Amino acid sequence: MKNLKNFILLFFLAISFSNYAQENKTIDLSITVKDENKQPVAGAVILIDNVKQRRVANLQGVFKIKLKKTPKEITVFSALHGVKNITYRGENQLDVILGKGNGPKQVIGADINTKSEGAIQFRNIYDYLRGKVAGVTVSTNNRISIRGASNWSGSNPPLLVLNGVQVDDDTFGDIVPTTIRSIKVLKGPETSIYGLRGANGVIEVKTAL
């Protein structure tokens, strides 16, 4: 009888542990977005259970995220290529084709299809800075410096801020030029709100996505 009780206890403990592990499992999700011609759709917007994600698909049309909760639906949107809703079935890799039959090219949220004038001619954010932003120097290896910044801390680059959040070089490099709404270059006293982090100047980028 005692052995039976122990068996039952262990059985329920095993079930509880299994449920706990499933609830706390992290999902590594990668979404690749392409158009009808199998070309990457850079800047595609991703919504997970109707929540718009802060980042968008990069220049290769790839969006990666770690999820702590299993989603029910994923929506992929591009102002140029349309929108597609996908029922999530536990995949780690999703390949999404946007184009005809993907629904209307509707606007999700305010200003989502705002484009920076002439931005389509630039391959990446570094070309955009070279061609459209005064006071910024970008080297051939994409090293950024702000002319006239104090540069008291050596050769460190300026602080990079995307939609109010400090980002690293990789995230900054993923910004799609056609999504840019504005770029503001700060130096000297203007950087005081960032403290020592802004000693070499600050580049604030706001995107429409």
Explain what the structure shows.
- The protein is α+β, with helices and mostly antiparallel strands and 209 residues long.
- It is 17% helix and 30% strand.
- It has helices at residues 2-23, 125-132, 169-173; strands at residues 27-34, 45-48, 51-52, 62-67, 73-78, 82-87, 93-97, 136-138, 144-146, 159-162, 165-166, 180-186, 202-207.
- A four-stranded antiparallel beta sheet has the order 3-2-5-6, with no helix packed on it.
- A hairpin with a 3-residue loop joins strand 5 (73-78) and strand 6 (82-87).
- The longest helix is centred in the first third of the chain and has 22 residues, at 2-23.
- It is globular.
- It starts with a helix and ends with a strand.
- Residues 103-117 have low confidence and may be disordered.
Name its key features.
13 strands; alpha+beta; globular
Concise overview:
This protein has 209 residues and is α+β, with helices and mostly antiparallel strands. It has helices at residues 2-23, 125-132, 169-173; strands at 27-34, 45-48, 51-52, 62-67, 73-78, 82-87, 93-97, 136-138, 144-146, 159-162, 165-166, 180-186, 202-207.
